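Students often ask why inverse folding is considered easier than folding. One informal answer: many sequences map to the same fold, so there is more than one right answer. In these notes we will look at a single instance of the problem. The structure comes first.
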């Protein structure tokens, strides 16, 4: 038999191919022929080590399930926000916008993920999207959305006409900054917002107040217009910076 050609090739093959590879190949073939066993394996086995490879079946499946659940949640939240955008006109009267504010604040409390809200602050967002995003952040005071909020205000403040937005919408954005900084500085030592974030916010809010169009909002009583919450934001930004100095 030792002179048999097939035997020689088989002997050569087994010498150079590890046993675990042969076993793994056999297991794979068996699982392909018994798919119900493969399903049970992925449900019940967390990990298995074969040779130099570790198969973490259950963990992979759980991660995929979690990712899918997150995607579905985001899609649902996007749908709810889209329906809200379509329910009002950002140019509506004060009474209408007050009702919308109440609805937005109620929905803001229900959101688990604010990434769809931050989409409403990006370039190209509609006036309705910006208004809803501003009001949601006024309610949530989320430091994780602070950079997106400041980016939005910086862009708007750089435009002589505030990108065509109404004063009420820009007021809501400035108020969101004020409430977010106030909440953070009051409840956290040191503040979660970093020194760099606060300094940039200070520069942006000062630019907003210096915008010529903003200065046309309630020139008789600036504190009642956009400059009111903008100045409040600046006051709390300074308190936040001083708090960093004391705790640094």
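Output (designed amino acids):
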């Amino acid at each position: 038999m030792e002179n048999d050609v097939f035997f020689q090739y088989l002997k050569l093959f087994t010498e150079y191919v590890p046993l675990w590879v042969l076993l793994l190949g056999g297991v794979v073939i068996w699982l392909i022929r018994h798919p119900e066993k493969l399903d049970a394996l992925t449900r019940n086995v967390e990990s298995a080590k074969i040779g130099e490879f570790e198969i973490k079946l259950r963990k992979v499946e759980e991660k995929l399930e979690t990712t899918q659940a997150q995607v579905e949640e985001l899609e649902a939240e996007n749908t709810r926000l889209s329906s809200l955008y379509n329910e009002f006109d950002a140019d509506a009267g004060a009474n209408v916008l007050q009702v919308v504010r109440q609805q937005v604040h109620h929905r803001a409390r229900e959101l688990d993920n604010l990434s769809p809200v931050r989409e409403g602050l990006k370039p190209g967002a509609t006036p309705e999207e910006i208004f809803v995003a501003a009001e949601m952040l006024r309610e949530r005071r989320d430091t994780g959305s602070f950079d997106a909020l400041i980016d939005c205000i910086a862009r708007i403040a750089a435009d002589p006409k505030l990108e065509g937005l109404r004063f009420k919408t820009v007021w809501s954005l400035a108020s969101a900054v004020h409430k977010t900084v106030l909440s953070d500085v009051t409840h956290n030592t040191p503040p979660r917002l970093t020194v760099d974030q606060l300094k940039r916010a200070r520069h942006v809010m000062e630019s907003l107040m210096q915008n010529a169009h903003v200065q046309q909002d309630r020139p008789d009583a600036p504190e009642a217009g956009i400059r009111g919450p903008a100045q409040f934001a600046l006051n709390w930004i300074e308190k936040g910076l001083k708090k960093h100095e004391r705790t640094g």
